[in-house]
Amino acid sequence: MLSKRIIPCLDIKDGRTVKGINFVNLRDAGDPVELATQYALEQADELVFLDISATEQKRKTLADLVLKVAAAIDIPFTVGGGIRSVEDVSILLKNGADKVSINSAAVKNPSLINKLSEQFGSQCIVVAIDAKQIDGQWKVHLVGGKVPTELDLFDWAKEVEQRGAGEILFTSMDHDGTKQGFANNALARLSTEVNIPIIASGGAGTVPHFIDTFTKGKADAALAASVFHFGEISIPELKKQLNQQQLAVRIDEL
After folding, report:
1. Helix (H) or strand (E) holding 20
2. CA separation for the pair 160, 125 (Å, rounded)
3. Of 117, 224, 214, nearest to 166 (Cα)?
């Protein structure tokens, strides 16, 4: 059985880690390299860095941050935000990223998924999907959740798998930052409709929320931000409790 992964997410804006609620009302959460080092020591399984200003302001993800992170930690990390081309991905991977995450660019140019998968391997390509419910339907949103589309979450998830994505990072915009739990019904449906790993994002507030997303939501990994950044949940304690629930997690001797 594959271990369930715990993944802190660092939203980056102007070189700092920030966190908001429902994608707005951002507040500072610290230096990304310092946080990354801390999480590696605390046995996070992976990290995700999303430059949330890159898509909005049409700036490329800062490659020098990737270099600094790669020098500081020894766990896999994914980088996203403003990635639009094979060249963008090549630079990030050469600088030390293990995976890249694409979102808006994939919707606007779906063949980009094929190109990246063919060039770098599907294991490097994560497609992030931000969605919210509108009239009972899960609709994909772009540009940090600001631009709604008519694209259905589940149809799009199946297409990105067919095009070569290695993982899907699904964020429920309705749950993001609320600390009321993950969108487990949608996650469970995703897990039955696609055959690649699903990372749950949006809504983590308590340890039981993680247990629920791995059991009820059938997620392969759970991503969270503020509960880790502000010390509300410790990763070692979280993993201990997951282990007690017979959920397979990586636990090393500290």
Report:
1. strand 16-21
2. 10
3. 117
Domain ranges of the chain: 5-244
What confidence tier does 57 reach under pLDDT thresholds 50, 70, 90? very low
Tokens encoding 11: 């939203």
The chain-wide mean pLDDT, for the chain, equals: 91
Q: How confident is the model at residue 60 (pLDDT cuts 50, 70, 90)?
A: low
Question: What is the DSSP pairing of strand 77-80 with strand 47-51?
Answer: parallel
The closest of 14, 11, 35, 33 to 23, measured between CA atoms, is: 11
Domain boundaries 5-244, CATH class: alpha beta
Residues 42 and 236: beta-carbon distance below 8 Å: yes
Please give the full DSSP string across 43-107, using - where no structure is assigned. T-S-EEEEEHHHHHHT----HHHHHHHHHH--S-EEEESS--SHHHHHHHHHTT-SEEEE-HHHH
User: pTM of the full predicted structure?
Assistant: 0.92
Task: State the catalytic residue, choosing from 130, 176, 212, 220.
Answer: 130
Query: Tens digit of pLDDT for each residue in 228-246?
Result: 988 999 999 999 999 999 9
Q: How far apart are alpha carbons 199 and 93 in whole angstroms?
A: 21
Active site residue 11: yes
User: Which residues are CB-neighbours of 25 under 8 A, at least 6 positions away?
Assistant: none
Q: Is 45 a catalytic residue?
A: no
